[in-house]
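Your task:
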Amino acid sequence: MRKGIFSALFLVIALVIVAAYYLINRIQQTADTSPGTINSTACRFSSDVGRDGALMVLIPAGDFFMGNPGEDELHYDENPCHRVYLDAFWIDCYEVTNRLYKQFIDETGHRAPHVTAAWAEPYNWTNNTYPPGKADFPVVLVNWEDAVAYAAWAGKRLPTEAEWEKAARGGLAKQAYPWGEKIDVKHANYFTSITSKNEMQPVGTFLPNPFGIYDIAGNVWEWCADWYGKTYYRKSPDTNPPGPQEGRYRVYRSGAWTNRAEQLRCSERGRNVPVHQSYTIGFRCAESAEEKPVETRALPGKGSS
């Protein structure tokens, strides 16, 4: 009987040791990717990539899994989940703000964001000036062509869909959101309930993803460079996919403050005609790393764009 007791005790101790080892390893694996934690050992930042002075983060070359990990038919245009290799690139840490967009307008004479409709009144610019108190809010009512024009002025471009998704995933593989399988109001600005007040927020209000990118899920949708193709993933190249050569719609990503959590997934794809304007669509810029060798620093400075 004593031998049986010792055997059971030994088994319990062994199980405790295994469980502790597993827990320690899980903690180590997630130490740099917990919500709001920037992986400072892997990320490099610079404000010297574009003429707008916006803070950007360098996303290193390498591959990642793109698309919907579940490959369910409900999200048919996100299938299949596939491995993609991308060259290194820069991407804005924040969505382009009204403040930055005004610099662009003042220097180029480009049209100001405006839609003649009652729903657009709170977001319309007047006399080339954004609404009062909204300097650090993301610019909206910009169509795809406006976003491209700003990016060209800044010496940058729009991110491809693949670049956007790799940046959004923050180094995590096959997870639904930039921080893992779950999301909450600490992470992103999105619709949670008809009983709670929700509206657009200034950039950088919510926690960054592990790459140090803010609002990469929620707040406003973000235009990408690509034409939309619902079956493009089935035939896209596995290295630096540029998107279809032509199409009717341009892609936007991220989900907005008006959307439920489901639409903030990293693989979620939105689309509309290039001239479409909305109070829920803005953008951020990107640039190829080899074209902009600049001095970098380990951690971003405090503040917004």
Observations:
- The first helix runs from residue 2 to 30.
